[in-house]
Amino acid sequence: MGLTSLDKIIALQRSPANTRNLCILAHVDHGKTTLADCLVASNGIISSRLAGKLRYLDSREDEQIRGITMKSSAISLHYRHGDQEYLLNLIDSPGHVDFSSEVSTAVRLCDGAIVVVDAVEGVCPQTQAVLRQAWLENIRPVLVINKMDRLIVELKLTSQEAYTHLQKILGQVNAVTGSLFTSKVLEERAEKEKEEEKASETLSGDQVYDWSAGLEDTDDSHLYFSPDQGNVVFASAIDGWGFSIQQFAHIYSQRMGIKAEVLLKTLWGDFYLNAKAKKIIKGAQAKGKKQLFVQLVLDNIWSLYDAVVTRRDKEKVEKVVTSLGVKVMARDSRHSDPKVLLSAICSQWLPVSQAVLSMVCEKLPSPLDISAERVEKLMSVGARQFDSLPEQTQELKKAFLQCSSEDYAPAIVFVSKMFAVDTKALPQNRQRPLTQEEIAQRRELARQRHADRVAADQKAVESHEDLTHSGSAPQEAQPARQSTAKMENWTLKDSKPDEEEDQKETFIAFARVYSGVVKKGQRVFVLGPKYDPAQGLSMLPEGCSASHYVPEVPHLSCCCLESLYLLMGRELEELEEVPAGNVLVVLDTVSSPSRALLGSHRHETFSTSSVLHSPLGNVLTTSSLTSPLTLSFFLFQYSILHCPSHSVSNSFPLFLSFWPT
Predict the structure, then answer these.
(1) Residue 475 and residue 479: Cα distance in Å, rounded?
(2) N or C, which terminus of the chain has less Cβ within 10 Å?
(3) Residue 464 near residue 477 (C-beta atoms within 8 A)
(4) The dihedral of CA 147, 152, 157, 159: what is its sign?
(5) How far is it, in rounded angstroms, from Cα 49 to Cα 342?
(6) 168 HSE (CA, 13 A, CB side)
(7) Integer Cα distance of 251 and 16 in angstroms
(8) Lowest-confidence range among 76-85, 196-205, 270-279, 489-498?
(9) What is the per-residue pLDDT across 69-84, written as a single tens digit (0 to 9) for each?
(10) Between the CA atoms of 6, 659, 522 and 367, what dihedral angle is there, to the nearest 10 degrees?
């Protein structure tokens, strides 16, 4: 796929059903950023040869030096799946435990997550942490078992041993998911028992005790990872290949004449192929047979590594290339590093970007599919229950669920963090390319300055010779040199203020639109963590908007959204508006709440809306000097009825809201 234009991405933002907001979660060094490079390369933003080496989403210098991700970064990708086009807002998050707050800010903006697990190391402490984070935020995860090449090259496992090892890893991941599910059911059961005890105290007669835990009546089959469900991809991002069961089921259904539905159910599991009877039979392990997954999938990959990397058998490689129908360039086949040839073959045969992005489009939810439970969590804080909120506040739940971009929809934006960027990185301050006329003018000026410098040097030499003949050279020749040095010093001094100005940084906010349309130049309310809604209702007039005169209310202020940007890895692209279901970057200016702000006060019927937000724990980070503060808040525009107080220390969430004018 070629490079996607900004206009195409803006057009795709209007279709929330085909939008996917996802993040990549994993333990440190399990291959998140390498996998992200492969996905970025699928859009032509970087070369596929640089995937895994460039670390495109690690835009900070210290990230490149240390080789780990320290700050979450986002990019928007375009992918065509079947006859549908999708917009994928991808967020790469850190895996180190010291930067776990960055994971929290990334998860809060997403509807799904790609959980990456190292095929050798398996489930690690941070893997458990991110699975728990995804569970608590009610986002749907899919699994990528990465670094499959290590099983072949480092551990030197056979295909049968590798299959057993992969089963154990899946069991470990599912065990974590099962424990989270069990704890949730037991908590619900405990709450139910408390209610029953209170009810039984008021009733007389025989009491019935139910000792069941409630696990038997709950269906949890959809929560677990299984290749036959299509939510698992096996990959080696560094070598550029990855696959799902669906891909091989489609391939072998055409070759063997077996229905794809049958292969989907039997490619993973204790099934083997009886060639004589032309049947797929269960009980491979008991009869000492190779499982279908080993025979049809792993054996082919193992033989390819054996021919290319281990033996370097040119004849066998040529046969494999011919049978697969791929084209290999001459420079790749002659390269001294066999991994170059291997990557050239595998990236065409089983491209990892195709396997992962297809799974994302099929298995992860769109913004329209946000669950009611997640909305209630977003609108509740601490021990406060959703049912205890005012009726006007609960009505805002409909706006979250509808995720509408119509004019009547309230615009609701959640900001997960703020971070510093160089002012020069903003699109309006970006240095534009020179025209041919400007290049010619600069060239002529450079030639003139060079000619003047040569003439001045020649004159200084001649005066030095004259002074030498007169015998006063040591004393009289110095003024010319001193004047030259003074000129250079003045030039350096004059340039220092410009350099200081260039080093200025600007704070911008990383956010997601949950409802309505965000437009450049809108004025919004800013509600601090200690804002009291009852006090605000009594002090703010009905139908008051951020464009009106706002009386002094504690912990309430206003701001104007100066600019809206699309975060594309290392660059920012300017936008005029952003519809619901998308992520964005906001540049705003905070103004005093007592100032009179211009704007319309229409849509008085929306004056009773409100929002609550469950704040992130440990959002104050000091992991880098360039990003000392992380904030989380909501955005609104017309009247605010309820925003709760904040109970977590070292956190600074704000709440904003705006409505269309």
Answers:
(1) 8
(2) N
(3) yes
(4) positive
(5) 12
(6) 12
(7) 32
(8) 489-498
(9) 888 899 999 999 989 9
(10) -20
